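Next up, sample data:
>
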Amino acid sequence: MSYALFFHDTQISEVFPSKADAWAFAEKCGHVTVVPALDEDPPRRVLSLSHSIRQTAPGPAIQAA
């Protein structure tokens, strides 16, 4: 499966080969906030408002850094 970062319904990244790679890209771009909670280890990661990571059609993949 392939994944990409979206803002509203617009794809704003290239396609990644895994969901983990898409999350890593979103975090690198500053679209992820870490929300600590007493009962969660590791802390929860939350995307910025109106951003989402969605499954998408296969396309050019970006190599994970």
Summary: The chain has one domain: 2-56. Strands lie at 2-7, 10-11, 32-35, 44-47, 51-56. DSSP finds one helix and five strands in the chain. The chain has a mean pLDDT of 88.
